[in-house]
Amino acid sequence: MSLPVVVLHGFTGTGAAMAPLADRLNRAPSSGEVISPNLAGHGIGARPTGSDEYTIEAMAGAVAGLVDGPIHLVGYSMGGRVALTLACRYPERVATLSLIGASAGLADADERRVRAASDDALADELEVDPPAFIDRWMHNPLFVTQQRLGPEAWEASRTQRLANDPRAMARSLRMASTGRMTPLHGVLAACTMPVGLIVGSLDEKFRRVARDLASALPDAEMIAIGDSGHATHVEQPEATAAAVLATIRRAQ
Q1: For residue 121, what are the contacts with CB-CB under 8 A and spacing of at least 6?
Q2: pLDDT of 237-250, one tens digit each?
Q3: Domain residues for 35?
Q4: CA distances to 65, 113, 163, 188 from 85, in Å
Q5: What is the CATH number of the domain that holds 210?
Q6: Residue 204 is assigned to a structural domain of this protein
C-alpha cells in the first residue's frame, strides 16, 4: 500500500490552495491518499487559542499527529519550514521530503532579530488593513510572477487569502516568523530520507537557499522548475507534481 502524502501550504494560503499539486498527486499510482491540512491561523474553522500553537515547532507536531506511521511530506514556503522541522525532529515518520521554496531558518541571531521585528510590523499592518496587506504581499517579487496566469487566477488567489481571519494570520506571522523559528542548520544531518529541493528558475533567492540545503542534507537533490517563480505548484503544477513523484520513487 502506498503511503499517505501530506501537503502543507504557505503563509496566507490554505490546504485548498495546494489543490493544483494535490489533485495531480491524487491521480498518480505511486501516491497514496493526499492530505492538505490547514495550518494554524489559516482556513475556516476553529482557531487555536494559545500563541504557542502557532509556532513552526507546534505546527510540525500537529502535522505529525495527523497520520499514524510514515508519510511522504511536501511543504511550500512556510509549510516547507514546518515540513523540514518535522523531518528533523521525527525522521522516522517521514519517508520522503519535498520542499518547495523553503529554508532551514536563519542561522545568525542578529538576522533573526531583524526579521522578527520586520514580521511583527507586517502583522500590525495586516490587522489594520487586511486588503492592503494582501495586495502588498502578492506584489512581493516572490509572488508577482503569478500575474502571468491571468487576472482570473490572480483575483481567485487574492479572494482565498482574504477569506482567512486576519487576526489569526497576524498571530501566525508573528509566531511562525523565520526570525522566531528554531534554525535547523545544526540538525539537518538527521534528515536522512530522500529530499527533493524544488525551486522555481525565476526565484533567485531560494535557488541559493536550495543549493545550501543540498550541500547540508545527506540525500538531497535540487530540482529546478523552469519558467516559474516561488510558488512552482501554482505556476507549473505538472512539473512540480513530477518532481514530488520522482522524490517519492527514490524511496520505493
Answers
A1: none
A2: 999 999 999 999 99
A3: 5-106+181-249
A4: 14, 20, 27, 9
A5: 3.40.50.1820
A6: yes
